[in-house]
Design brief:
Protein name: DUF982 domain-containing protein
Structural class: mainly alpha
Organism: Alloyangia pacifica
Helix content: 40-55%
Order of helices and strands: HEEHHHE
Shape: elongated
Pfam family, one: DUF982
Number of domains: 1
InterPro entries: DUF982
Largest sheet: 3 strands, antiparallel
Distance between the termini: 68 Å
């Protein structure tokens, strides 16, 4: 019984370590995209696909077909089921449809 208790305790410790250890791989997005918000002129720099994904899900100013398409393509690229170029192009299209302007890289 005591041996079983030790095994259960060690499995619990291992499980807690696994939960705490999260490895994340960033997917190369290419050159950063710099977008200017049409409402207030704020400039946002998109360097990773993870930031693009967050914006499309949480901060996007309009919910339309372009946003949904971009989100689907970004998520597919994050799962390595679609090319990053397709996701990037869909994101740029959604950004233009939402009124964002693309700034030149400085």
């Amino acid at each position: 019984m005591e041996q079983l208790a030790r095994v259960v305790a060690s499995v619990g410790t291992l499980a807690s370590r696994i939960r705490k250890t999260t490895n994340m791989m960033e997917i190369f997005w290419g050159d950063p995209l710099i977008l200017i918000d049409p409402k207030d002129g704020d400039v946002t720099r998109f360097c990773t696909i993870e930031k693009v994904h967050y914006w499309l899900r949480r901060k996007w100013p309009v919910a339309d077909a372009a946003q949904q398409t971009a989100l689907a393509k970004v998520e597919a690229a994050m799962e390595c089921m679609n090319s990053v170029d397709d996701a990037r192009n869909a994101f740029l299209k959604a950004a233009r449809m939402a009124g964002f302007k693309q700034a030149a890289m400085a």
